Amino acid sequence: MAVVPYKDKNDGKKAQVATMFNNISKRYDLLNHVLSMGIDIIWRKKAIKLLKNDQPKLILDIATGTGDFAIEALALHPDKVIGVDISEGMLAEGKKKLKKKKLEDKIELQMGDSEKLLFEQNKFDAVIVSFGVRNFENLEKGLADMYRVLKPGGKTVIIEFSKPKKFPMKQTYNFYFKFILPQIGKIVSKDNSAYTYLPESVQAFPDGEDFLQVLRKVGFKNTQCTPLTFGISSIYIGEK
């Protein structure tokens, strides 16, 4: 059964995730950096550097949220980055950010469903996602569509939370995720479900080798997984 934010509602995961992000969009950036103690910024920089030798000119950022990963991708000097997301609230915050930074000519944000991307096949040099794939309603379908819109020889770079395996990080992480994080999230975002959903969705996500198997199943080759910060997160790479 799919892990959803609002257990008392009958909507599918996709609709619930969109509602949740609309609810927390105004405080999302603050929460993100506070809850990860700013490490998420380092993780994004590290992930983007893995595309340096490929010099992608057209990049698609899926589940772009408020556009942080898309902005980080500008370090590669692409011609354009297109960010898609299912949450209008998140995109509205992202557009404000781009306007402030004067980046509207370089990054285009639009509504989009990761499982039904409105782009022709073989369009993008790189497809990137940070902390978005575990929110897909159908993981395989979402990854298969990412593969479809990628050019042959193109790469996907995905950052996602994973589960630390070793003592004492495993125990510390579980305690923080289950007890501390939902409390901070509740106070700052006023949406109780959002930060209960986070640990539940991470727990249910097939991380490490299990995720690489799904990438290979939909067609990606030369897949790799690099654990970050004691295994709290991982960067995944796949080529078309």
Defining key terms:
seven-stranded mixed β-sheet, Rossmann fold, 9 helices, globular, alpha/beta
Q: Briefly, what CATH class?
A: Alpha Beta
Q: State the share of residues found in helices, binned by percent.
A: 40-55%
Query: In this structure, how is the largest beta sheet organized?
Result: 7 strands, mixed
CATH homologous superfamily placement: Vaccinia Virus protein VP39
Beta-strand content estimate: 15-25%
What is the CATH architecture term? 3-Layer(aba) Sandwich
Q: H/E series, N to C?
A: HHHEHEHEEHEHHHEE
Number of strands: 7
GO biological process, one term: methylation
Function: Methyltransferase required for the conversion of demethylmenaquinol (DMKH2) to menaquinol (MKH2).
Binding site for S-adenosyl-L-methionine: 66, 85, 113-114, 130
Keywords: Menaquinone biosynthesis, Methyltransferase, S-adenosyl-L-methionine, Transferase, Ubiquinone
